[in-house]
């Protein structure tokens, strides 16, 4: 049995028929042709499928598409403003925060979401001062990005890119 759902993906409203067992990742990639989120582990362990779902970072491989009817989804491909890259995207380029690039869309979406969490004052496990402004140290960035894996090991450059984008 399939049900029609509507998603706003990177600013465009899209309608798609999905089986009730279809993940959001499969709906995006296989039904809508949105290939920015990647299928890595398909178990929520690598982060390559991360998108911004209603403004918050989310693993699409763990989410049923039918539960997201009416949601707004931003992929890494939808972060740019025309030809102007999002600051996180630009810094990933400037700091060589990618190698093979497979994890990059998920890393970028997670970084954008993470920076918004910092801006809102949400502490992490390693946040020292829970009542003041959050200092975006290397340790803080690594903790907050720990759900996004990079097979190539570009972590130092990813951390540098995120810290530069935060400035």
Task: Write a short abstract of this structure.
The chain is built from 5 helices and 5 strands; from the N terminus they run E-E-H-E-E-E-H-H-H-H. It is an alpha+beta fold. It has a 5-stranded mixed beta sheet with strand order 2-1-5-3-4, with helices on both faces.
Question: Would you write up a description of this structure?
Answer:
It is a single chain. With 167 residues, the chain is an alpha+beta fold. The protein contains five helices and five strands; from the N terminus they run ββαβββαααα. The protein has two domains: 76 residues, Beta-grasp domain (Ubiquitin-like (UB roll), Roll); 80 residues, Orthogonal Bundle (DNA polymerase, domain 1). The chain is 31% helix and 16% strand. The chain has a five-stranded mixed β-sheet, sandwiched between helices. A hairpin with a 2-residue loop joins β3 and β4. α2 packs across α5.
Q: Uncertain regions: pLDDT < 50 for 5+ in a row? A: none
CATH class label of the largest domain:
Mainly Alpha
Query: Which band does the percent of strand residues land in?
Result: 15-25%
What's the arrangement of strands in the largest beta sheet? 2-1-5-3-4
Helix and strand composition category: alpha+beta
Radius of gyration: 16 Å
CATH superfamily of the largest domain: [2Fe-2S]-binding domain
Keywords: Iron, Metal-binding, Oxidoreductase
Protein name: 2Fe-2S iron-sulfur cluster-binding protein
Domain 2Fe-2S ferredoxin-type: 3-79
């Amino acid at each position: 049995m399939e049900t029609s759902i509507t998603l706003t993906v990177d600013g465009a409203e899209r309608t798609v028929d999905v089986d009730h067992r279809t993940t959001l990742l499969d709906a995006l990639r296989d039904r809508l042709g949105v290939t920015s989120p990647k299928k890595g582990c398909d178990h929520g362990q690598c982060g390559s499928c991360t998108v911004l779902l209603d403004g918050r970072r989310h693993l699409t491989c763990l989410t049923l598409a039918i539960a997201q009817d009416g949601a707004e989804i931003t992929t890494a491909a939808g972060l740019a403003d025309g030809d102007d890259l999002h600051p996180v995207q630009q810094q990933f380029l400037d700091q060589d925060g990618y190698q093979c690039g497979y994890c990059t869309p998920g890393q970028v979406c997670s970084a954008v979401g993470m920076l918004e969490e910092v801006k809102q004052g949400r502490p992490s496990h390693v946040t020292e001062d829970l009542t003041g402004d959050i200092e975006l140290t290397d340790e803080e960035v690594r903790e907050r990005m720990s759900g996004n894996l990079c097979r190539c090991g570009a972590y130092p450059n990813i951390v540098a890119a995120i810290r530069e984008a935060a400035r």
